[in-house]
Amino acid sequence: MQSTQAAQIELDGVTHAYRLADGLLPVLENVSFGIQKFGFTAVVGPSGCGKSTLTRLIAGLIPPDAGEIRLAGEIVTSPRPTVGMAFQNPVMLEWRTVLGNIILPLEIVASSMPQAQREDRARELLELVSLQGFEDKRPSELSGGMRQRVSLCRALVHEPEVLILDEPFGALDAFTREDLWGIMHRLRRKKPFTCLLITHDLRESVFLSDDVIVLSDRPAKIQYSTSVDLGDERTLEDLYSSETTELLAVLRHQIEIAQRRAPAGNGAES
Ligand SMILES: Nc1ncnc2c1ncn2[C@@H]1O[C@H](COP(=O)(O)OP(=O)(O)OP(=O)(O)O)[C@@H](O)[C@H]1O
Ligand SMILES: [Mg+2]
Questions:
Q1: R_g of the chain, CA atoms, integer Å
Q2: Residue nearest (by alpha carbon) to ligand 1 atom 1
Q3: 37 domain residue, yes or no
Q4: 236 φ, ψ (degrees, to nearest 5)
Q5: Could you tell me if the CB of 49 is within 6 A of ligand 1?
Q6: What is the pLDDT of residues 130-184, one digit of tens each?
Q7: Cα separations (Å) of 68 from 37, 43, 108, 221?
Q8: Does 196 map to a domain?
Q9: What is this structure's pTM?
Q10: How many domains, the chain?
Q11: Eight-class DSSP state of 37
């Protein structure tokens, strides 16, 4: 997980502060890590430490104050069409069908692609997330889990090299969340991408990723990182093995340390 030239996502000494009316709010401090092509890294850390800020930086939506972010070796200075994103509460256009919402990114980044080809791509993804037959539904007709599956299809429809997920399953009940984890594995096998996942759920971080990074409280630094050696064919039962239970205990302890270190009254609250 060290930053190398071959990594698909590389952060090198990334530092960022927000400018508030009463001064600077340092959020990220000297954050460096790399994710290899088709790798999957999860980032966990205390609420308000800077995880979403990290995703906005990697997506090129805001620039770092110091340090460098590179995607496939190129410094990120603005949003890239090679990146897909999904968030906790997906925003969908109610006046469009499920299919119409999924193909939206293609209308922007692949405007010359024939409509039939766009729709074929969307249908293929809908099948992968077990939502075939829902093409013509409106977003309001979907459950939370279904919306999130549609949101994943939309994030992947333009076949991005990099997928950034910011707590995509955070609002779902435990069973639906576990279903989505299985779907993520399936998507990853069929349509490989390099992924950065932000989550509050340690089991989720372990089940889905190759590496887990624990951020300290704000200004966030990398406090701890570990690899997850569960292989590609992992099942939910693997989460109850003695090795995984031990790993989860270590991660929980690291989160406690991160929270205990929280300095009181340090700027704006999240
Ligand atoms: N646009 C902004 N302007 C000013 N301050 C901001 C802005 N966005 C976030 N912040 C502040 O930066 C800090 C980090 O916010 P961020 O959303 O990155 O945290 P987070 O780790 O994603 O939190 P959570 O786990 O609750 O989602 C918080 O103190 C937040 O109030
Ligand atoms: Mg956040």
A1: 19
A2: 18
A3: yes
A4: -60, -30
A5: yes
A6: 999 999 999 999 999 999 999 999 999 999 999 999 999 988 999 999 999 999 9
A7: 18, 18, 27, 15
A8: no
A9: 0.92
A10: 1
A11: T
